[in-house]
Every structure is written in structure tokens, then in C-alpha cells.
Amino acid sequence: MASPPLLNLQSMGLTFGGAPILDGVDLAVAAGERIALVGRNGSGKSTLLKMAAGLIEADSGTRFIQPGATIRYLPQEPDLSGYETVLAYVEDGLGPGDDPYRAHVLLDALSMEAHASPVNLSGGEIRRAALARILAPVPDIILLDEPTNHLDLPAINWLEQELAQMRSAMVIISHDRRFLQNLTRTTVWIDRGRSMRLEQGFAGFEVWRDQIFEQEETEAHKLGRQIAREEDWMRYGVTARRKRNVRRVAELQALRDRQKSSRKPVGGVKMQASMADASGEQVIVADQISKAFGDRMIVRDLSIRILRGDRIGIIGPNGAGKTTLINLLTGTLAPDKGEVRQGTRLNRALIDQRRELLDERMTVTDVLTGGRGDSIEVNGESRHVIGYLKDFLFLPEQARQPVSALSGGERARLLLAKALAAQSNFLVLDEPTNDLDLETLDLLEELLCDYAGTVILVSHDRDCLDRVCSAILMAEEDGRWTLYAGGYSDMVAQRGEGVKARGKHSGPSVKVQEAESAGSEAGRKSSKRLGFKEKHALETLPAQMEALGRDIAKIQTALDDPDLFTRDRARFDALMKTLEECQSRLSAHEEEWLRLEMLREDIEKGEA
Q1: For residues 368 and 391, is the Cβ–Cβ distance under 8 A?
Q2: Which one of 3.10.20.30, 1.10.287.380, 2.60.120.260, 3.40.50.1460 gives the CATH number of domain 523-605?
Q3: Which of 32, 160, 346, 497 has the smallest CB count inside 10 Å?
């Protein structure tokens, strides 16, 4: 006989703004059970998890928890305000009988400084501290809402191993397929306000879901044909000419009501990239490039040739310099030594993980049209912006909303819509899977596999890397990068192991020290976001440095004339003075760019 559930939610209902979010949803969690809670963005998964944690009260339904059972909940955005140290935050989650030493063990395993102030933590460090807080008590039930967000591959692997050996029951919301497949043994699907349960882990979910959709489509077709037959009888039946059959009329109305009330699948995302003309065969050729920030080497003697059609995945622990490597390869940042050559006819589209390409003050429509009317050109065809937004699951009323009103998933879809509308033959994607639901991830992966151009992808999503990439460029020690053929699993097979974590103190604290050595007071304070002027400087300084480099090269060419000093002393002196000024300005620009880049990575990238 099955043991009674530790937690049981029955017929839970909740309505916001007239539309039901949850309508009779059930969730039962038995001791030791591992449940994947899945559904589209906006389906109510996080809301249901908050109900399970007792943080939200439902409009209808009942919540039962076994007396004495303990629950710990990991929110998507943990709040550490009010705590002097990380250790104090973690210990505050312990119960009377819990072992306080476990808090120290977990923080050490997560490479966290126990006595660090929460004020200056990055997104990744906040997530690690919150994980330590909920895991330290070893509760009966753990509720996890996107636990892998902001974590790098070593941290994800550690978390998987830690959860796998725990006795606690778990309910997990995650967009990381591999994480769900490795940990779950039951799946609860929230779809169109209702729940369905599969007594298998997430590995069996997608086949089961597709079977349900096919069955619903068949039943809807049968119901439509039955209604058509009844309507035909009402119009042309012999009995109907003499007297309406009251019973048949009532049955027809019941069929129509059933058709109206039947759940209809939510429309799907439709992704199509606007293709530019093909680029040259060679897209990027890097020859012995190196880049260092202070004493820290980011890239050392890297040579790589990226050809048209390649799909290169860039992986490594947080702080390894993945974004810096992208900037080097795409020409945004100049190497300290070596050379990067761009191919011909390149049209690049970029998706950055920090959503910095989205101006929060602009409306959704203006982001796509640039404020020029209500039409957008996609693949050479003019489309109304609202119709195009519907392809990415936006409602018509959202077209005039500011970006600041969008959720994380909606911002991710908007950025995809913007990038895919632009004609391109070269996609550069820095963590594009953040905040996307599984169905949207499916379509993005299919698009990338079918994309006729070249793709560079930075991701911590192992399943996405396996599905999309033809080669993996991985960060090794001391700025070394190694290219492996195939996807993530192929890399592990060739290498014999996955991505290793960097040293405990080599994450954000090193970056702060480097910023301080460059005179960065802002780096020490680690403010929540960059100001407009700082963002503008980050965007414009590389071009200014490149222009100064060209000017310096021209001056040095003129000074190479051995007769210039004797022939035209005044010109020689003027050139020398100009050269010193240009070099001084270039040095100042490089220091300022370094300061801002380090500050941005420390604040927003969530590197640990």
C-alpha cells in the first residue's frame, strides 16, 4: 500500500484579472518522491510551487501537509537583504534540531565566503547562498524553482550529485532538460490551467505530451463531425419540418457547450530566421591570439578557424572569459597579441544574456520597428508587428507595453524576435536559453540546427549543446582553450571529464581586485547596474581604441622615414608629440574599458 503524501494540493484554483491561471490543479508529494513540474511560461508552475510552500493562498482547493513535515522553497529571485553575512542568511534557515556545521560544509562546497556581505554578491553567488540555505536543514520536501539559473556547469554538476544522494522529496521546475532527466521519476504537467500526472521522469514526458495532443485533436475532430450531423438534422430532417424535437435540440446545445469548454492547445512559437546572402567560406580566422587583464590570462595563444556552417559551443566555468573570447573573435575587442581576421559578407545578429540590447523605456513595438511605424520586414516580406509578435506568443495588448513590464521569459522571446528578424548569416548567442520554456527551447534548437549560416553559442545547457553544436571550445587552465569535435557529451567522452570549477577565490573577488588595481571604486561597491554613460562608454570605447590604433600606425609609418628628422625637424617634432598624445589617450581608454568591463561582469554576469 502506498504511503500517504507528505504534501497534498487538491483542486487548486486561482484567478488573476478574470482569467483562471489554475483551474482544479492537483499535486501530491510522497516521501522521497522526485517530481518534475513542467509547463509553458505563464502556465502557473511557479504560482503552484508558492502555494505548495504556503506563500500564496488559492481561491479554491485544499492544501494538506503532514504534521511535523518540513518544507524548504528556492525562489527564482532569492532575497538576502537584512543579513550581515552569507552564513547568517544560511543559518537562519536551520531548524532547532539541524546541524549548524552543515551550513559551513555547503558554503565551502559552493565556493562561497561564509562571512561575505550579501550586498556585493553577484547573481550566481546569491543563487548558491540560497541553495545552501534550503539544503542545510535536509528537509522532508524541497521545492526548487529554476535552481540552475546563473549557475555554471561545475555548479550544476555538483548540485545534481548533492540532490541525488539526499533523501528529501523534491519538486523541480527547470528549463534544463538534462537536469530534469537525471533527477526526476515523476512528471506533473500544468497545461491550460489543469494538471496531468505521469508516473515517469522527465525523460518520458515529451512522447507522452505529444500523444495527449494527438488524442485531443482526434476527439475534437469527432466532436465537430457529430455537431455537423446534428445541425444538418435540425435544418433538413423530416421531423424538423413538422415539429422541433426538444430532446435533439437540447443535445445539440450540450455538444456546442462541450466544444466551447474543451481545452484548446495554446498557440506555438513560430521561429524563422531572416537569412542574408551567404558569407565567405572562412568566417573567422584567429592566429595565436592572447588577451590578459592585469596578471590574469584570459586567452593564451589561441588559433582557430571557423568556417561557414560551423556551430561552435563555448563552455567553461563562470569567470573563464567566455564573453571576452566572443568579443575577441567577433572583433569587438582587440587581442594583446596575434591577429583575428573576419570573413567576407558577414551579417551578424547578436543575443546577449544580460538583455542589454533591450531598452527598458521602449515599447515592445518600438524595439522591433525602431520606432518607425507598425510594420517589420522579415525575410524580405513586410509584416504587421502585432502579427509577428503573435508568432512569439505575445498578446496584442502587449505591443504597446514598455520592456520594463515584461517578464524574463518575455524579454528572452522579444530579443529572439528582434535578432531573427534581422537579416543574418552569423548568429552569436550568449546564454540564449535563459528564461525560455521547454517548447520554445525546442523550436530554437531546431532553428539553429537548420540555420544555413554560422553559429557561436555560449551555454551551460548540456542538452542544447548536444543538439546544436558541431564542436565545443572549452576553457582550460591559464587561458588555454581546446576545441573538441561534437557536442557536450562528445567532449566529455574525449576529455574523460566535464567542466572543472575554478579555484575558490578565482571568481568575482579576483575581478574586484583587478578593477581596484585599475582605480575602480565602483568595482568595490558592485552596484546593481551600470549607468547610461557607463553603458555608452562600453559600446563606444572599442571603436575609439581601434581608431587610435590606426592613427598610431600611420604616425609610426611616417616616422619610419630615416630622413625625416634632418629634412623636416618641425614635422618630426609634431608627429612625435601627436604620437605621445595618441598613445596616452589609448592607454587611458584601455584602462577605462577594462574598469567598466570588469564591473559589468562582476555585477551582471553572475560569475562565481
Answers
A1: no
A2: 1.10.287.380
A3: 497
Judge contact between 490 and 469, C-beta under 8 A. no
Buried b (16+ CB within 10 A) or exposed e, 349-360: bbbbbbbbebee
Pairing of strands 7-16, 60-65: antiparallel
When the candidates are 1.20.1250.20, 2.50.20.10, 3.40.50.300, 2.40.50.100, the CATH number that belongs to 7-206 is: 3.40.50.300
Residue 513's pLDDT is what?
Answer: 32
CA–CA gap between residue 36 and residue 196 (Å, rounded): 12
pLDDT band at 498 (very low <50, low <70, confident <90, very high): confident
Q: How far apart are CA 69 and CA 141, in angstroms?
A: 8
Identify whether the C-beta of residue 535 lies closer than 8 Å to the C-beta of residue 603: no
pLDDT one-digit tens code per residue, 445-458 = 888 888 889 999 99
Q: Inform me whether the pLDDT recorded for 436 exceeds 50.
A: yes
Grid coordinates belonging to 97 = 534540531
283-301: per-residue pLDDT in tens?
Answer: 999 999 999 988 889 999 9
One-letter-per-residue 3-state SS of 63-87: EEECCCCCEEEECCCCCCCCCCCHH
Given a contact cutoff of 8 angstroms between Cβ atoms, the answer to whether 358 and 367 are in contact is yes
**Partners of 348 in beta bridges:** 426
Q: What is the pTM of this model?
A: 0.70
395, three cell numbers: 498578446
Q: What is the rounded (10 degree) CA torsion for 36, 42, 43, 46?
A: 50
Is 79 a residue whose pLDDT tops 80?
Answer: yes
Q: What is the DSSP letter of 363?
A: B
| Dist CA 250 CA 256 (whole Å) | 10
pLDDT above 90 (res 174)? yes
Other beta carbons less than 10 A from residue 494's beta carbon: 12
Residues 1-26 have pLDDT tens digits of 467 899 999 999 998 766 788 989 99
- CB proximity list for 258: less than 8 A, separation 6 or greater: 223
* pLDDT higher at 518 or 411: 411
Parallel, antiparallel, or unpaired: how do β-strands 471-475 and 481-485 relate? antiparallel
Beta-carbon contacts of 38 under 8 Å, excluding residues fewer than 6 positions away, are 45, 173, 180, 187, 188, 189, 190, 202, 205, 438
Count Cβ atoms below 10 Å from residue 541 Cβ, excluding itself: 18
The Cα 298–Cα 475 span in angstroms is 9
What is the number of alpha carbons within 13 Å of residue 33 lying toward its C-beta? 23
Q: Which three cell numbers stand for residue 171?
A: 519538486
Distance, CA of 49 to CA of 322 (rounded, Å): 34
CA distance 287 to 323: 19
Query: Can you tell me the distance from the alpha carbon of 142 to that of 501, in angstroms, rounded to the nearest whole number?
Result: 25
Cα–Cα distance measured from residue 129 to residue 111, given in angstroms and rounded to the nearest whole number: 10
Read off the C-alpha cell for 397: 495588448
What is the rounded CA–CA span in Å between residue 261 and residue 93? 45
User: What backbone phi and psi angles, to 5 degrees, belong to 95?
Assistant: -90, 180
CATH architecture of 282-502: 3-Layer(aba) Sandwich (3.40)
Average pLDDT for the chain: 82
For the ranges 51-55, 194-198, 261-265, 342-346, the lowest mean pLDDT is seen at 261-265
- Return the ∠ at Cα 132 (arms to 127 and 138), rounded to 5°: 135
Cα(131)–Cα(75) distance, integer angstroms: 10
